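BUG: 3D viewer hangs when loading the predicted structure for this chain

Environment: internal workstation, default settings.
Expected: structure renders.
Actual: progress bar stalls at 90%.

Input used:
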Amino acid sequence: MAVTVVRAPAETGAGFSSRAAAEAYIGGVCFKQGPPALIGAELEWLTAHDESSAPGSRPELSTLADALGPHAPRSIAPDSPALPLPGGSRVTIEPGGQVELSSAPFGDTTELCERLRADTRILEQLLRSRSIRILAAAADADRPARRLLQLPRYRAMEHSFAGIGPFGKLMMCNTAATQVSVDAGADPAEVAARWTALYAIGPALLAAFACSPDLCGAPVGGWASQRMRTWLRLDHTRTRPPVRQWSDPIVDYGRWALDVPLLCIRRPGDELGDWAAPPGATFADWLCGALDDEVGRRPDVVDLDYHLTTVFPPVRASGHLEVRYLDTQPGDGWTVPIHVIDALMSTPEVIAEATRLAMPVADCWSEAARCGLADPQIRSVAVDLLTLAADHARTSDAADEVSAAVHRCRSGRIPTGEAARCDEAEA
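Structure tokens produced before the viewer hung:
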């Protein structure tokens, strides 16, 4: 993503003297401290290669690369300059051919949304030149999961998740999300407050923006967010950190991440080889020498940086705080959760109030994903949080969009189209 922490170049082979040193490194790079001023977003879409209204086939990677030209990511075009789009967004491709725009960080949501909207139009034009459509859906309701990217990371990921049923491959190939990133905070106390709030409000906001009831290949069962269902059914050590038990997220995140099983082990120079990790082995095991026989070397800083990209909690620390629990929204509706997160993180007082309002359902991740707004308590909390967000939105237009979402949530309806204005919702 473009909204990423910028780390000092690490010397290949530079390792860690102890587990404590690795934990301290994680705390420093995953929680960059400073006045919280920036916000960014990632938008994901499914893709189809045809001009009809039917789901269509998945585009070939070569066709995607041809359409994107100099903006193609190196995962599908190794010699590409991978230039950002004019608004600063970078394009990436997910394993099933989903396309993603990762924004640059901006100081306010108005500029962020304007730049992303402009880059989205350019992306659509580029893809249409090769008869590729983007589908604003959080889950593929019609096509079986099929992995297009053959990178060793994704081969290892698919293999690792295969033992838990279809959910790993479905997550990788058949889902799409709206992600919002905000600064971590100016000091440890503010970091802890912002981190706690983003987790506390998660289930209610997940339900408020859940719009993926159908997913091809998923086991039978009614879920408001089939996309989030796939995440909740994956390796819990990787996707469900015990955040409510943490007193200091900067310290505890590092401890947790080291004890997450290795998803893969990089083997530089062997981009077509087998990156599978020894089953059940954690980064801490590798660090202490338990994998010397299997791997033949100890991990370095680059290995730890890579490992941190293979943990998938609902909120991930990547220098900033990356909110990962929101479905891709229909049409231009992605602007609404951006405004909501921005407003709820706007001041310490609003953060404290949002946390207080959210606490009754702060642990209800599965209920929120399954029932969505049909759960009366979750719906009530979602309405309260969105009302708070509307009251503290940055602009009147943002307040109108969020107020429309309040009315929608109060009536229990799922997002179905472009972001609406308050007066349109009341009509």
